[in-house]
Specification:
The protein has about 350 residues and is of the alpha/beta class. The protein contains eleven helices and eight strands. The protein folds into two domains: about 30-175 and about 270-360, Alpha/Beta hydrolase fold, catalytic domain (Rossmann fold), CATH 3.40.50.1820; about 180-270, no CATH class.
Length: about 350
């Protein structure tokens, strides 16, 4: 089986199946639900729409902002027929923690252009949510925290590292290494899960290393494209017997260069979470499923822990949760093809860990 060179597997790519979703909350709700909006003054005053859920009988509760993963997500982080942020918000609010979740810019009811934005633009959206919460008199504004999933787990420390009033941070399958490594390890593991031969995976990785390496080295697309071209042509000359050598044509090179043209992808490949984790000093919980193929648990959790030690962070909890996938579902293999087929939206075991960790501190 041949792999597609520069296979860029974005978080949450999978088919949709008709399945029961038993964890989705149903009315009546035992908490207050308020549709809200707030403005990002750093991004042409775009208005972002969301939902704030407030527990009943809790005066000025702690509050967490939910930050979604890559790709345009609505406030429920709807994907593969699941609504994990809806389930998470319902559970935490029922346990006394207020939750703000919002539609990504340019998605659902939020304004703005999603496709032209980078991780750092999305970070300013989260900062705008923090600013909004500080205007409320029904929450404890000294207890505003962040819960980021996948790319949201990268956005959260970016925000926390430059906003020292963030009270806590929870990273759910967040990254600990740069985007080049994330994409390469994600592609390798995805290929292993579908039974691709090791020789094909290794060859593919040599080519993606050329392409992603060019992105990390250069700031302009013209220079990236030039290096991708020279690198792939050199590979073809130096490896005439490679199973990919015959594929490397001018048209193919053009296609591969264009695959990394987006500002978001270039930024993601270049960004190292350690630059921000090493300046994050608020209490932090980092969780990852043992069967996560998109953000490999051992590689990323170890990197997160090292960076937080560098920060001198005294309140760090790192956990690998056995049997859970990238979406924190109980899974067989962890493959993205299972996401929609699994009825469970969010592991109850993970929900309890998140809730207990927050309530122990607040």
């Amino acid at each position: 089986m041949k792999l597609t060179i520069t296979t860029i597997i974005l978080f949450f790519t999978c088919a949709i199946f008709s399945q029961n979703r038993p964890q989705e909350p149903k009315e009546p709700f035992n908490y207050t639900i308020e549709d809200i909006s707030f403005t990002n003054t750093k991004a042409e005053n775009i208005k972002l729409a969301g939902t704030l859920t407030l527990p009943k009988n809790v005066k000025k509760p702690a509050v967490a902002i939910l930050i979604s993963g890559s790709g345009p997500q609505d406030r429920n982080e709807s994907l593969a027929g699941h609504k994990p942020f809806l389930v998470l918000a319902d559970y935490l609010t029922n346990n006394g923690i207020a939750i703000l979740r919002y539609d990504d810019r340019g998605t659902a009811k939020s304004e703005g252009d999603f496709m032209s934005a980078t991780t750092f633009d999305f970070a300013t959206d989260t900062e705008a949510a923090v600013t909004y919460l500080k205007t409320r008199n029904d929450i404890d504004i000294s207890k505003i925290g962040l819960i980021g999933h996948s790319e949201g787990g990268l956005i959260a420390p970016i925000v926390a590292s430059r906003n020292k009033d963030i009270a806590f941070l929870i990273s759910l399958a967040g990254t600990g290494v740069d985007g080049k490594i994330i994409l390469e390890t994600q592609t390798r593991r995805a290929a292993e899960l579908v039974g691709a031969p090791k020789s094909a995976i290794d060859e593919n990785e040599k080519l993606t290393n050329i392409i992603y390496g060019a992105v990390q080295k250069h700031d302009t697309f013209e220079n990236i494209k030039a290096e991708v071209s020279s690198g792939l042509k050199a590979f073809k000359v130096e490896n005439p017997n490679s199973q990919y050598a015959s594929l490397i044509t001018d048209a193919f090179i053009e296609q591969q260069a264009n695959a990394v043209k987006s500002s978001w992808l270039q930024t993601f490949i270049k960004t190292d979470p350690k630059d921000y984790l090493s300046r994050t000093t608020c209490p932090i919980l980092a969780l990852n499923g043992s069967k996560d193929y998109q953000v490999l648990p051992k590689l990323n959790l170890e990197a997160i822990e090292i960076a937080l030690k560098k920060a001198g962070n005294k309140d760090v909890t790192i956990k690998q949760l056995e049997g859970l996938n990238h979406l924190f579902q109980t899974a067989e293999t962890g493959s993205g093809q299972e996401y929609a087929k699994i009825e469970e939206t969010f592991s109850p075991r993970a929900l309890v860990i998140i809730k207990d960790w927050i309530l122990k501190r607040f």
